[in-house]
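Minutes, project check-in
Item: structure for the 540-residue chain
Input as provided by the requester:
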Amino acid sequence: MNRHHWWRDAVIYQVYVRSFLDSTGDGIGDLAGVRTGLPYLKKLGVDGIWLSPFYPSPQHDHGYDVADYCGVDPVFGDLDEFDRLVDTARRLGIKVLLDIVPNHCSSEHPWFRQALAAAPGSPERARFHFADGRGPDGDEPPNNWHAMFGGPAWTRVTEPDGRPGQWYLHMFTPEQPDWNWRDPEVAAEFDRTLRFWLDRGVDGFRIDVAAGLFKHPELPDSPDPEADARTRDSVNPLAWNQPEVHDVWRHWRAVCEEYTARDGRERLLVGEVSVPSAREHAKYVRPDELHQAFFFDLLGAPWDADAFRKVISEAMQDIAGTGSTVTWVLNNHDQVRTVTRYGEPTPESSGLGPARARAAALLMLALPGAAYIYQGEELSLPEVVDLPDDVLTDPIFRRTGSRARIRDGCRVPLPWSGQASPFGFTSGTEAARPWLPQPDWFAEYATDRALADTRSFWHLYRDGLQLRAALDQLGDGPLRWLDTQPGVLAFVRGDDLVCAVNFGTAPVPAPVDGVPLLASGPCPPGVLPGSTAAWWITGT
């Protein structure tokens, strides 16, 4: 494995801070809780953690509405606690990545408050997208764009003199105004933010909405204005993936290289990039831009051998062809968990979902490049699909009234131990229950039970990570496809390590002889059961 560039084959664990571990008893996870959980993550074998936003925020979108980019919200701790977390992680050999949100901020950010108090055309408003409305009284939005989380992408303000005034752009919610990156003050402020956290010892950044930042300079109407809301993806070509964004990533890469030159510690930039194709994705990971960008096509692929092979082949051709490595992901804080996504709709199901999720995990860990694991993935947590309406916090639900594609179900606080909520997540009393309710069946997935059961998902992940670190064939490098029967996917890593996945339900002959080195389920010699993945050393 290429260990000089640690990020090329790193396995990073995504920590959704408010749902990881609560140290104060208020029912909300915090930075001290993350620090307490670091030995658990060290035992699992990950190379680093990515922390969801913990900055001061009114929490309209759980921290992705940032009011202060250089602070810690009191609900999560303070800067001293953050420093202790970084120090502990470094002693354990765990990298720390922060989630940075450069596309938009909170409507309570000081600069946006200044913009509201200033006049049209002022420098304060130039930091955002303010525009006059259409129609005789300016009472229609400046264009027809819709926000990803539902509703118009524009909100009209009341001017300081009390009259209806201009409109401002928000591609998510009205509480998240979009920055105007054509204003040089915005770029300078984020440069300061990067350096603030790099000076505190972080190892890099996960960049939210990395294909955003710039909008078409004329803000024209879209031919499909509801595309973002309909798909809940950044597909409006006038609002996303503008060519100027690449200049920002070149500058941020240069800042990271500057810090690396000082002390030899390589800093990482990994982007949340939603673009139409692997070829477009590859433009973000050219040698002078982002080190990596999440490749979501595998996450979105149906459980089908041909579909998986297609997206893997395209990524290896287009993304790895830039000199970067592909950044694989199967779960995150915005998606339905694989156990539910691949199986039946009920979380208690013991059918195909868990078997397919295990096989997909082993496949992902065998692929060349980096991999990101979302907290609870290693516990085989299903989606919580039956949360009552009155506890839902996702702004998508608040803005649309629909439960379709809401994200609360994958964000329920983790179960650590015990037979009843809060399952060790918080030491709080009955009055400080977890911020989202945990179902009774979470007891089956508690961490203490997973560690004690050698057949659990947790042990599959831990064993896979240990082998990935120990075997030169895994991690960075190429792959070679093997010819297989329909419904089976198999490839070779190095000269002699084969990963094979049976996407069907019936056993088929294994692509190699012998006992598998690691399998996602019971795997007799010479047989690959349905919905199973296995690694073999061929000896050739």
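Outcome recorded: Residues 515 and 524 are 7 Å apart (CA to CA).
No further action items on this chain.
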